[in-house]
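Student:
Attend to each token:
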Amino acid sequence: MAGGLTYTAVESTKMATAEIYGKTLVELGEENPNIVALTADLAGSTKIGEFKNRFPDRFFNVGIAEQNMYGTAAGMAKCGLIPFASSFSVFASLRSLDQIHTDICYQNVNVKIIGTHGGTSFGQAGSTHHAIEDFAVIRGLVNMTLICPADGIETGLAVRAAANTPGPFYIRINRGFDLTVYNTSDYGFEVGKAVKMVDGTDLTIIACGSCVYQAVQAANILQHDHKISARVLNMHTLKPIDREAILEAVKETRRIVTVEDHTVIGGLGSAVAEVVVEGGKACAFRKLGLQDKFSAIGLHEDLMAMHEIDAEGIVKNVLELMKMDFEMDEDWGDEV
């Protein structure tokens, strides 16, 4: 596979996304001696134990002290190293926010934050382990790049891109065995550029992370059962977001649905809405995600269905959105 990844698409279905992150980090460590890994006593859960075994002198366990870990990572970056600091997404984004803001972003240092167990993917652990606000928090930080890959292959590409791009990165991945979206790594991944998964003319579904697979399935159902042509964009990079792809979707489909495993406040939907409003062109719009509430406790697939961010929930909301009116004329002058 391109980019040095040594597993196949078939093998990727048998590995958790975090495991692919761990394997990619080892490969990067072999290529670049300046890459180091840090953990807050979660090497096993975040799947970077293989890096520890391969490079014990470049692996640091700070204990259950996430704030210290990110401060330490900032210091290492100031010395020319490239730290990958791994923790659960909720601990990285909320517990350590002051250190990420001041030590990493304010100094614009080359620290890569890998937040695992994103969204409700560790649903059975309860609200303390649900990362449903991290997009909103991280997206507001100056100098930060925010990526939420759709599957294991895209995770490997995102990690490699982060290693080769100066500056702070936050990559949010899930806990479990994500459904495979891509069967090759040469589909054109680029930081800040959406990937068109399905072309369509009636509306556009914009998704990230585990919701991308669900959006593609929903588009197939809409086409087969309802003769609705749905475009699907994988908006893997939330910051910087692909404004061009969004504005093109508004112009060509006039209906937008965003789907994310995150609260609808401040995340992907809000980022897309900002672009739409600033673009000055009206469209029918709906944000799917957690509707300003905490999630119940349960398995990830059940929680996705509960919050209507699975294929069935997306179809339901699309059918409702298709009934909404908007200006049918092509004269945008009165809407700017």
